[in-house]
Amino acid sequence: MALAVVSLGIWSGCENAEGVNGLAVSPSTQTLGGSSSNASTVVFTAQVSSPLALPLEWRVANPALGVIVSQSGSNAVYRANRGARGDNIILVKDQYENEGSAVVTQL
Fold first, then answer.
1. How far is CA 74 from the centre of its chain?
2. Strands 99-106 and 29-32
3. pLDDT tens for residues 79-105?
4. Which end of the chain is more exposed for a tag (fewer CB within 10 A), N or C?
5. Are 106 and 62 in contact (CB under 8 A)?
6. Alpha helices of the chain — where are they, by DSSP H?
7. Which domains does the chain possess?
8. What is the pTM of this model?
9. Coil, helix or strand at residue 104
10. How far apart are CA 25 and CA 58, in angstroms?
């Protein structure tokens, strides 16, 4: 009996995901700093053709460059750390495991 349960668990892990879509993040790219702007924050919005499964999980690839300071519904606010330069990836995931990303370039 235990062998049958383990076997079913292995087979169920091989099923194709149904209804999983990527999330579009707007803006998909954003540049902060440099001579054209002194802005240090960006508001990102996650979008998908089907309803979002809230709450969303927002995170950054490199917290040394910046952090998500607030989030509400489909929006999140990213704040660049003062003096930090480089590219940071903003990642978002909903409760159905749909994922999306955006890139912030800090000059």
1. 11
2. parallel
3. 999 999 999 999 999 998 999 999 999
4. N
5. no
6. 2-12
7. 22-106 (2.60.40.10)
8. 0.77
9. strand
10. 11
Mean pLDDT score, 46-60: 89
Q: What is the mean pLDDT of residues 47-67?
A: 91
In this structure, how many other beta carbons lie within 10 angstroms of the beta carbon of residue 49? 8
Residue ranges of alpha helices (H) inside 1-99 are: 2-12
Q: Alpha-carbon distance 94 to 52, whole Å?
A: 7
Q: CA separation (Å) from 32 to 8, 38, 42, 75?
A: 50, 7, 8, 18
The answer for residues whose C-beta is within 8 angstroms of residue 15's C-beta and 6 or more apart is none
- The helix (H) or strand (E) run that includes residue 32 is strand 29-32
Tokens of 20: 């999983």
In the block, residue with structure tokens 């660049």: 80
Res 41: pLDDT: 93
Q: How many CB atoms lie within 10 A of CB 105?
A: 16
pLDDT in tens, 30-42: 999 865 556 799 9
